[in-house]
Amino acid sequence: MSSNAYFEFVSQDYINKYITTSAVVFLVYDIILNLVSEYHFIWRTQWGAVKSLYYFARYGALINLSISFIVHLIPAPSHKM
């Protein structure tokens, strides 16, 4: 791998890490801001299709981003010849 291609790969890897980290932080911030409203309008209602879809969309994204965040923290294996 040439030096220029290596730096481009490393640069894109850092960009992916920054974007994933910022997405996780923004989603957690949004969840914290809306916790009181979510408690009143979602948690206190009976289970139904809408409540299930809400939880899936809201916390499914958090789980997906958290897994992606953890995967990006693991260093890539180096290919030494």
From TrEMBL:
Query: Which residues are in the DUF6533 domain?
Result: 18-63
InterPro entries on file: DUF6533 (IPR045340)
Q: List the keywords (alphabetical).
A: Membrane, Transmembrane, Transmembrane helix
Superkingdom as given in the UniProt entry: Eukaryota
Instruction: Give the transmembrane region(s).
Output: 20-41, 53-74
Q: What is this protein called?
A: DUF6533 domain-containing protein
Organism of origin: Cerrena zonata
Task: Recite the lineage of the species.
Answer: Eukaryota, Fungi, Dikarya, Basidiomycota, Agaricomycotina
